[in-house]
Amino acid sequence: MNETDQRQLRIRTRGIQRAWDPRVWGTLIGAAGATVFVMAYRGALMAPWPVVAVVVWAVALLAYIVLVFVTPRVFTKASRVGAGSGFIYLGSVAGMLLLIRLGTIVLDNADKAELRAAVIVVAVGLHFIPFAVAFHTPMFTPLGVIMAILGAVGLTVGWLWHTRAAAAMAVISGIVMLAIIAADAVRTVPQPSSTK
After folding, report:
1. DSSP letters along 20-56, please?
2. Are 117 and 170 a contacting pair, CB within 8 Å?
């Protein structure tokens, strides 16, 4: 491959100019889910935490918008996904929904329905992990693992101490989602060349 071909595989542009690229529009799904976690569960927190949650979410959202859509970054040629990627996606979503349903049944029977937010965080986190391989996007592995851990902490602390922990972990997971998506975009921001 000659130098011209290599340059054609690396495009420096803003995300907004590549809105059709799954590495850009796909982040909207994550940002929407993150926002739902924050807005749906912040009301279960004690004052002043609902307001703090919105302020931190707004900062994380602004960072996400600037880093994903406005800041110039390098886009390499997108990897083709395999024929099985759709099945992995559908299987992950089905598994997530099944885990949420089964977790809800267990919580209802244990009279701990207030912990459902934590079960949802665990399920959403676990469903991200196979995406790393299916869509050639390594960011999904830490995102999925961190969310599953946050959800498990919320479930455990909520079960043993106070159910509010489940809502707190859901809010935190939404902010963490935005931060991880923004950090993944930073990874592709060209660094100024250093002079030696």
Report:
1. TSHHHHHHHHHHHHHHHHHHHHGGGSPTTHHHHHHHH
2. yes
For the chain, the average pLDDT equals 89
The H-or-E segment that residue 75 falls in is: strand 73-76
Question: Which residues, including other chains, have CB under 8 Å from residue 123's CB and lie 6 or more apart?
Answer: 95, 96, 97, 99, 100, 103, 151
Q: 184 is written with which tokens?
A: 């993944």
Look up residue 163 and give its amino acid.
Answer: T
Write the pLDDT tens digit of every residue in 26-53. Answer: 899 999 999 999 999 999 999 999 999 9
Asked if 53 contacts 34 with a C-beta cutoff of 8 angstroms, the reply is no
CA distance 185 to 64: 8
- pLDDT one-digit tens code per residue, 49-59: 999 999 999 99
pTM of the model: 0.87
